[in-house]
Amino acid sequence: PELKTIHQKKKKKEKKLRGKQKSMSLLVPHLILYLLLLTVVTGEILRPRFYSETCPEAESIVRSEMKKAMVREARSVASVMRLQFHDCFVNGCDASVLLDDTPNMLGEKLALSNINSLRSFEVVDDIKEALEKACPATVSCADIVIMASRDAVALTGGPDWEVKLGRKDSLTASQKDSDDIMPSPRANATFLIDLFKRFDLSVKDMVALSGSHSIGQGRCFSIMFRLYNQSGSGKPDPALEPVYKKKLNKLCPLSGDQNVTGDLDATPVVFDNQYFKDLVSGRGFLNSDQTLYTSRETREYVKMFSEDQSEFFRAFAEGMVKLGDLQSGRGGEIRFNCRVPNRRLIDVLLES
Question: Which cysteine pairs make disulfide bonds (predicted)?
Answer without folding.
Answer: 55-135, 88-93, 141-338, 220-252
